[in-house]
UniProtKB/TrEMBL annotation, chain A:
Membrane topology: Multi-pass membrane protein
Protein name: ABC transporter permease subunit
Highest taxon in the source lineage: Bacteria
Designated gene of the protein: ugpA_3
Compartment(s) of residence: Cell membrane
Entry's Gene Ontology BP terms: transmembrane transport
Signal peptide as annotated in the record: none
Family indicated by similarity: Belongs to the binding-protein-dependent transport system permease family.
Organism name: Roseburia faecis
Domain ABC transmembrane type-1 residue range list: 76-293
Automatic annotation (TrEMBL), chain B:
Signal peptide: 1-20
Segments passing through the bilayer: none
Residues covered by region (Disordered): 25-49
Organism: Roseburia faecis
Protein name: Carbohydrate ABC transporter substrate-binding protein, CUT1 family (TC 3.A.1.1.-)
Automatic annotation (TrEMBL), chain C:
Source organism per UniProt: Roseburia faecis
Membrane-related topology note: Multi-pass membrane protein
Name of this chain's protein: ABC transporter permease subunit
Gene Ontology biological process terms from the UniProt entry: transmembrane transport
Keywords, ordered alphabetically: Cell membrane, Membrane, Transmembrane, Transmembrane helix, Transport
InterPro entries linked: MetI-like (IPR000515), MetI-like_sf (IPR035906)
Amino acid sequence: MNKSKGKVVRYNKWGYIFLIPFIVVYVVFQLIPLISTIYNSFFENYMSGLNQVGPTFVGLDNYRELFKSGDVWIYFKNTMILWIMCFIPQIFFSLLLGAWFSDVRLRLKGSRFFKTVIYLPNLIMASAFSMLFFTLFSDAGPINSLLMQIGFISEPYKFLSHTGSARGLIALMNCLMWFGNTTILLMAGMMGIDTSLFEAAEVDGATSTQVFFKITLPLLRPILIYVVITSLIGGLQLFDVPQILTNGTGNPMRSTMTLIMYLNKHLYSKNYGMAGALSVVLFIITSLLSLLVFKVSGNDKRKG
Amino acid sequence: MKKKAVSALLCAAMVAGMLAGCGKGSDSGTPSDTSKGDASNATESASSNLKDDGKVLNIYCWNEEFKSRITAHYPDYKEVDATHGKIGDVDVVWNITPSDDNAYQNNLDAALLNQQDAPADDKIDIFLVEADNALKYVDTDYTAPVKDLGITDADLSKQYQYTKDIVTDSKGVLKGVSWQGCPGVLFYNREAAKDVLGTDDPDEVQNYVCDWDTFNDTAAKMQAKGYKMISSVNDTYRVYSNNVSSKWVEDGKVQVDDNIMKWVDDSKKLVDAKEAGTFDMWSDDWSKGFYPDGKVFCYFGPAWLVNFSMAADTEGSIGYNGGWGAAQGPQGFFWGGTWICAAQDTDNASLVKDIMLKMTTDDDVMKDIVLDDDDFVNNNTVMNGLADGSIKAKDGKEYSSKILGGQNPLSMYCAGVETLDLSNISAYDQGCNEEFQKAMKNYFEGKATKDEALELFYKGVTEKYPELTY
Amino acid sequence: MAKSKKDVEGGLGIHARRAIAYIVLIIISFFCLFWFYIMFINATRSKGELKAGFTALPSDHLLTNWNNLVHGTLPIWSGMFNSLIIAAATAVLCVYFSTMTAYAIHAYDFKLKKFIYPFILMIMMIPTQVTALGFIKLITGMGLMDSFIPLIVPAIASPVTFFYMKQYMESALPLSLIEAARIDGSGEFRTFNSIVLPLMKPAIAVQAIFSFVSSWNNYFTPALVLHDDKKKTLPILIAQLRGADWLKFDMGQVYVMITFSILPVIVVYLILSKHIVQGVALGSVKG
C-alpha cells in the first residue's frame, strides 16, 4: 500500500513538469497584459490624436458610462441572435453529417471526399470571403438577378440594408466558414469511439437512430461540450464577419453590431479605460454562460 | 474557435496597450504629455532638434507610390532591394505598412511616440499622410515645420493653395508638401448627355450641372429617361464637404456644417426619386456605370479616377470608347493625394529638404512625373503649360485625353483647384466623414429618421474621439 | 411506438436514407466548393472586367495577372516561405504543448490540479484580444520586433486547443493504458511521446489544421510585428496589394494572389486530413 502510494506521488510530480511550458508562456505573454487590462478599466486613458489623455483614476466611471445608455445590452442581444442563427444550423448539419459518416450501415461512397470538402471554406480568409459575398449579393449581382428572373422580386433587394437579411447573411457566411470545423471536431471524436460498439449494436439489430442516440451521442459528450462552449465563446467574440460585411458600421442602425465590434470602436482611440471595462463585462458574461453550459451538461463530475 | 476574429482584435488591443504604455513610460520630455496648446508653442525650441548626421533615412508610408516616384525621379537614389535603397552614403529604409484596419497609423503613431528615445538609425525621417488624417499629425510637435528645414515660401510658390491648407497646423505653420494635385471635375456619359440633354458639348452640359439646384433638376430629367444621375450619393459627398464654411469640431463640440446638411437633404431627395443609389464607393454596384449598361450619367473625380479606375482599358467600357466628357460641375473639390512630412528629430534634415524640394518643386522632375506617370502634379507652371499646349505630351502633340473623347480637360482641373478653400479642416475629419456617411445611409434607405441617423453619427464620433461632446 | 418506428426505418430505410444523404452532401459540397470556383473565375479576369460585376465563365487574363504579380515589387515567394515557417511552427508548438498540458491534467493527480484546470478554462473565456493588451510593448521591450518569435511562441499556451485535447482524452485515452506502460517500465516522458501522442493522432491532426490555418490567415498580429518586406507574410502582402495606389491597383492581381496563397493551405489540409481518417484504424486496434 505505502509503496504504491509513494510511487503515485513520484509520478505525479510529472504533472507539474508537463505544465511548465504552458504556464511560463502564458504568464509572459498573456497574464501580465491581462492584469493591466483589468487595472486600466478603472482609469480614464485614451489617445486624442497623438496626445495621451490620462491615465486618471476614475473608479467605476467607465462601467457607469458603459451601462448608462443601455447600448451594451442591445449589442449583447445582437451577438446572441447572430450566434444562435449560426449555431443551430451548424450543429444540426454537423451532427447529421457526423452520424451519416459514422453509420456503418449507410456505407456512403466518397465519404472521404465529402469529409474533406466541408472544411475548405474555412481556408479562405474572411476578408476574401466577404469580397465574394459582396459580389454575389450586390444589387446587380447574380442572386438578385436570379430572384428577379423567377419573378420573386421586381427590383433588387438590398440584402445588407434590412435587419433580417443582414443578420441572415452574417449567420450564413459564418455558418459556412465554421460548420466544417465543427463537423471535423465531431468526426475526430467519433473516430475515437470503439468501432466494436457499433458492430455489436448492429448485430443486436439496433436502428441507426438508436445507435446514434444511445451510443454515439453519449460517448461524444465531452467533445460536444467542447463544441458548444467554444462555439459560445467564439460567438460572443464574433467580430470579423459582421465587421467586414457591414464595413464596421453594424448597419442597419447597428442591428448587427456585436460586443466585440463595439469594443473595436473604443480601440480606435486606444481607449484603454472603456475597452478594459467592456472586456471585463464581456469576460463576466462569458463565464456565466459557460458555467451554465457546464451545469446543464453535467460535466462537473470531473474525474480526478 | 473564432481564432481569426480574436486575433484581429487582439492586435488592435495590443496597440492600445502599447501606446498607453508608451505614454506612461516616457514621462518627461515627450510632447505627448504636454497639452496641444503648449506643444505648438514649443515649435521654436524644437527646431534645434533637426540634425544632419544620420546614416539611415527612414521613410514611413502605406503603399509603394512614393517609393516608385523616388526610384524613378530622384537623381541620386539607387535601389538596393524592395525596401532598401541608397542616396550617397545614406541608407534609405522603406517602412511600408498597409492602411487596412488602421495598421499604418497605429504603427506610425507608436513610432512617433517613441521617436525621442529611438536609436538614431531607427528615428523616422519622413512619413506620408493623407488629407483626411493630415491634421492629426501636422497639428502636433512630431512634425517639423518645412520652414525649419530651410524651405521658403518662394520655393513653394507654384504649388496649389489647397495642398498647403491641408498640411497647415492650427498656428498657421506649414508642415508638409505634396507633389500631387488632385482637383476633381464631373465626368459625364456623353451618350446619356446627347440622349437626354441633346448635347455632349462640355460647356453646354455644364449649364445643366452648374449648381446643385440645376443639378437636381437635371437628375429628374435623367430619371425620366432611365438614367441615374449619379451612381451613389456618396459620389457627391466630397464635393459638398470640400466646400464647408465651418469645421467638424469647434471647441471640442461636434457640429454639422450647413453644406453637409444640404448634401443630406439633396441626397435623400435623389434616393427617394430613384435618381441615385446608396452604394459604397468601389463596390460592384457603384462601378456598374463605367459601362453603358449601368446607365449612370456622371461621376465626380480627379484625373486618376477616369484614367486608371474606370475600366478604360477594358473593351466595352465607356472610357474605352472615349465616351466620357468632363465638365466643371457644381462646386470645386479634390480627391486623394499624398503629403510628405518631416518628422521632428530627424537626423537627415538637409537630405529631407532636398527630397522635398526635388520631388515637389523642381519643374523638370514635375514635368517628368506628369509625362511618365500621368500624375497631376502640384505645380501650376507645368500644369498650365500642359493645359495651354506650351508643354507637349510624350508623343509631341498637345495633351488630350482619349478617354474623354479627345477633350483636353487640364484647364478645367486647373481652374477648379484654384477656387478650393480648405481652411476648415480639422484633425477629426477622417472619423467624422466616415461616421457621417455611414450613419446617413440609414436615413437614405428609410431605416431611420434624420434625427435618429444624426444621433447615430454623434454616438459614433464620440466613441472614436472620447474627448468630444455634442 | 418505438417498434413501429424501427420497422419503418428498417424497411424503407437504407436506400431512401442513402439517397437523401447523397443529395444533402452534394448540395453542401456545392456550397463549399462554389467559393473556390468564383475566386478562380475572378483571378482570370482583368481589373476592368472585374468592375463589370459577376460572371460565371472564366476570362483569359490569368497569366497576365500572374505575370503582373510576379514581376511586381512584392516579394511573394519569400512571403509564402515566411507564412509557411510561422504557420508550421505555430501548429507544431500549439498541438504538442497543448497535448502535454492536457495530459498533465488528465493523467496525474496533484495538489494544484483542482486549481489549475478551472484556471485554464477561465483563461479560455477571457476574450483573447483583451488578454494581449500590452503585448507589443512587451515584445518591443524584449527587442523582438520584426521577429517571428512573438508570432510563434505564444502558441504554446493555447487554452482552446488544450481544452479540446483534454476532452478528447476523456473519451479516447483510458488511464489503464498508461498504467500498463508504467508497469512495462516506460518513463513518463517516453510514455507521453511514444504512447499518448500516437493515440491522440486524430485530435492532433484536427488541431494542427486549425492552428495552421488560423496562423496562415492571420493578418493583424504580423502586420504590427513585421515591417521588413522580406519578413512579411502573405496576408500582409495581400493587404499591401489592395492598398496599392491608383496606378497599380488591380483586383485581378489581388484575386490571383489570394488564390496563390490558398493553395499551400489546401495541400497541408489534405495531408493532415488523411491522418484524421487513419485515426479510424487506430480506434479499432485499441478496442
